[in-house]
Amino acid sequence: MSSAKPLDGKVAIVTGGSRGIGRATVLQLAADGAKVVVNYANSAAEANEVVAQIGADKALAIKADAGNIEEIGKLVDGTVQKFGKIDIIVACAAVMHLNELDKTTEAIYDATFALNVKGPLFLAQKAVPHMSSGGRIIFFGTTICTASTVTPNYLAYCSSKGAIEQMTRVMSKDLARKGIMVNCVSPGPTATDLFLKGKSEQMLKFIAGLNPQGRLGTPEDIAQVVAFVSGPSSGWMTGQNLRVNGGMA
């Protein structure tokens, strides 16, 4: 007889769940017993691979633009149709446009805030009616919001993640009345394909050297913290921002 797992009987949606931190989170939540919906925008092959790894009885891939309100509604509806409820929301999908002030266009601003801010807010709004006491909502910020080493080209990205920090703080006051905990996980530099893309070996060594442990984070480092915040041990924690960066900031 197998021993009970901390997320047995729980249903989770992970946006951006086919790659990087999202993928690692999906696999960790599934390992902890949850049934998981893997949301993706373009990477169908990767999403289906994750589902196959977990098993079609415990995982479902749903294509949806996590920054589009109508498609967010379809994501929520598809989850409830398959699994009957929602217990955990992990809003991992994000975009990072790196432009200084003079190169920041309205299109860049709109795209950044649509996926990074509007999407998580309305995902929570549409999911909450299907959630009960004990539910968890996990947003994603960034350590860069508090790092003195931030460079000017992070203007739009940090602005959007600063909004997420405030969304976490205020929404937690609302949803605590329903027994739903709302927290934010803010990673430091993490070795995902997106982060590594376009960076030289010298640059990566420099960034790793900024950390007292001398390395980049891994997607699994972040996923383990998300799993903790998703589980029963975090029942007295809400409105918090967990900076998961190995002591970098």
UniProtKB/TrEMBL annotation:
**Superkingdom of origin:** Eukaryota
Instruction: Write down the PROSITE patterns for this protein, in alphabetical order.
Output: ADH_SHORT
Entry's Gene Ontology molecular function annotations: oxidoreductase activity, acting on CH-OH group of donors
A biological process term (GO) from this entry: abscisic acid biosynthetic process
The record's listing under Pfam families reads: adh_short_C2
Task: Tell me which UniProt keywords the record has, alphabetically.
Answer: NADP, Oxidoreductase
PANTHER family referenced in this protein's UniProt entry, alphabetically = NADPH-DEPENDENT ALDEHYDE REDUCTASE-LIKE PROTEIN, CHLOROPLASTIC-RELATED, RE15974P
Q: Which family does it belong to?
A: Belongs to the short-chain dehydrogenases/reductases (SDR) family.
The name this protein carries in UniProt is Brn1
Species this chain originates from: Oidiodendron maius (strain Zn)
